[in-house]
Design a protein that fits this description.
Blueprint (H helix, E strand, L loop, with lengths): L14 E4 L3 H11 L1 E7 L6 E6 L2 E6 L5 H14 L4 E10 L9 E9 L3 H5 L11 H12 L12 E8 L8 H9 L4 E3 L2 H11 L2 E11 L8 H20 L3
Parallel strand pairs: 1-4, 1-5, 5-9, 6-7, 7-8
Antiparallel strand pairs: 2-3, 3-4, 5-8, 6-9
Helix pairs in contact: 2-6, 4-7
The structure holds hypoxanthine.
Length: 243
C-alpha cells in the first residue's frame, strides 16, 4: 500500500489513464469503463479500475504540475507495477496553426522545471514519448473506430512546454519556445516522460486545446467535455486497442 495512493497490490491495471483533475478521473470511469471500482480517495485524488471492451484499465488523477504528477507516477511504477501511463489533459495553444478543441499528442516536452536539472546535475535531458503509444494514438485519432473523434478538431504531433507556473512571470520566454516549434503549453508531460524512462515503462501525453495563448480563444465547458471524451477514446484505443 503506497503513501499517496493507498491501494492494495493488484488493484491497479497495467495501463493507467491520467487526467490532472480527479473529477475527470471519476467522469472517465463512469462514462467509459464497465464495472469501475474506486481504489483510492486519498486527498480526493480518485483512482478507478474497470474494463474497456473487456480489457482492464485504470484511471488515476495526477493533480496539477510536475511535482504532484511525479508523486502518483512514482507510486504507480514502483508499488503497483504499472507498465504504461497515458496523460489525458488540457493545454494552451502557442501557435496559430492550432485551434481550440484540437488535440496535441506530445512527442517530447520542454520545461522550465528544475526537476531534471537536479536529476542530471545541470545537463539538459530531452524527455520523449513512447513511440509505440504515440503511433497507436495517432492511428486511433485517424481511425473510424474512434466513434467520437469527429467531434474534435485536428490532431497535431509535436513538442509541448511543461511549465511550472500557470500564470507565467515570463510570457516572452514562452513566445520564444513557440518560435522554436513548440505547439502548446501544459504542466505535466516532462516529468511523466522522464519517470517512464527512469523505470523502463511507457508514457504518452495527449492534450486537448482548452484555450489559445495567442488569440485568447477559449472553449465552453460543453465543448471541453466533448473534446475530452474524444481524447479519452483515442487514449483507450492506443493503450488497449492492439493487445
Ligand atoms: N498554460 C496556459 N494555458 C493552459 C495551460 C497551461 O499550463 N493548460 C491549459 N491551458
Amino acid at each position: 500500500m503506497s503513501t499517496h495512493i493507498g491501494a492494495a497490490p493488484g488493484d491497479i491495471a497495467p495501463l493507467v489513464l491520467m487526467p490532472g483533475d480527479p473529477l475527470r478521473a471519476r467522469w472517465i470511469a463512469e462514462t467509459f469503463l464497465d464495472d469501475a471500482r474506486c481504489y483510492t480517495e486519498v486527498r480526493g485524488m480518485y483512482g478507478y479500475t474497470g474494463t474497456w471492451q473487456g480489457r482492464r484499465v485504470s484511471v488515476q488523477g495526477s493533480g496539477m504540475g510536475q511535482p504532484s504528477l511525479a508523486i502518483y507516477v512514482n507510486e504507480l511504477f514502483t508499488d503497483y507495477d504499472v507498465q504504461s501511463v497515458i496523460r489525458v489533459g488540457s493545454c494552451g495553444a502557442l501557435t496559430e496553426t492550432l485551434a481550440v478543441r484540437d488535440i496535441v499528442i506530445a512527442s517530447g516536452a520542454c520545461t522550465d522545471s528544475s526537476m531534471n536539472r537536479i536529476r542530471f546535475e545541470g545537463l539538459d535531458y530531452a524527455p520523449v514519448a513512447d513511440f509505440g503509444l504515440l503511433r497507436a494514438a495517432y492511428d486511433a485519432s485517424q481511425s473510424h473506430r474512434v466513434s467520437t473523434s469527429s467531434t474534435s478538431g485536428s490532431v497535431h504531433v509535436g513538442l509541448v512546454f511543461s511549465n511550472d507556473s500557470f500564470y507565467s512571470p515570463r510570457p516572452d520566454l514562452i513566445a520564444r519556445m513557440a518560435e522554436y516549434g513548440v505547439l502548446a503549453i501544459e504542466m505535466e508531460a516532462s516529468a511523466l516522460y522522464t519517470l517512464a524512462a527512469q523505470h523502463g515503462r511507457k508514457a504518452l501525453a495527449i492534450c486537448t486545446v482548452s484555450d489559445h495563448v495567442v488569440t485568447g480563444a477559449e472553449t465552453t465547458a460543453q465543448e471541453r467535455e466533448q473534446t475530452f471524451g474524444a481524447m479519452v477514446e483515442i487514449a483507450l484505443e492506443a493503450g488497449l486497442g492492439g493487445s
